[in-house]
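thread from #wetlab-drylab

HS: before we spend reagent money on co-crystallization trials with S-adenosylmethionine, can we at least see a predicted complex? here's what I'd submit
DV: go for it
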Amino acid sequence: MPRDKSKNKPQNAKPQNAKPPNAKPPNVKPQNGATMARQNGPAPDRNNSDFSPRLKASWDDNAQLWTAAVREKKIASRVSCTDQAIVAAALTLIKERAQQSTSVLDLGCGEGWLARRLSAEPDCVVTGIDGSADLIVSARQLDPVSSYLHLGYDEIIRAPARAGGPYDLVICNFALLGEEITPLLSALRQCVVAQGKLVIQTLHPWQACPESGYADDWQEESFAAFSAGNRAGNQAGNQAGNWTSMPWYFRTLATWIREIGQAGFAVASCAEPINPQSGKPGSLLLICGA
Ligand SMILES: C[S@@+](CC[C@H](N)C(=O)[O-])C[C@H]1O[C@@H](n2cnc3c(N)ncnc32)[C@H](O)[C@@H]1O
């Protein structure tokens, strides 16, 4: 059953796109945090209810900075916790296949670090997909062997075959950032083999819980932690340093599980990798069966 999206909208919500789609949210206040979306600003201006275009556009703007942040290992929580967690989860599933060749889709691959890591495994054939043309160029530069496709999630929803496959394993590493994930996951369901797996690593909902409360809603990532040493402050209202802020959608654990189920996958197990720096969960890992 489709989720009732209206329940998390403000009482005085205006019709969708009542404001220009690129309207800047007011008062973005960067807070503590070392990784994407660990430093939540307040929710964006919710009178504008479609943040998807701005979410996607932020990755075009941030492509160079993001590539540098990942490759120069500037994101502490990734280095100490979450990179290792997603690689271990993927390798476990690949090894369970007992030397059969494994086709992997790294959805929202960014500059491609995970695709490169997995393509180094024997008999692992990796495809990376991302909506940012510049990130796809960066990924191809370091890995001429794997396939990298410049595709938006909206295009996959419209025509799942464009994502290729069928895949044995689909991985979304901090790459499901929008509100409408059920249609995307449903499309991906058509791109996996019968016994295929979907692995999602995302912010742990209890660690990323907004100050406004534990409820599904749009949030704003300022990337302030990445811009330390760059231009201080928030002069344009939507930028920290040279980063363009990004709207992203917070969902509770129950919503994650419900949406995955609605898309035709089932959560088989979950893990909460502990960040040794904080002693708290660095992420939520959901291992799902098709
Ligand atoms: C936080 S980055 C993670 C990148 C990569 N998975 C990693 O672990 O470094 C999120 C990625 O999702 C991609 N993305 C987000 N929304 C997208 C959309 N609607 N269509 C295509 N790509 C999208 C962005 O371009 C970005 O590269």
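DV: The first strand starts at residue 40 and ends at 41.
HS: ok that's useful, forwarding to the group
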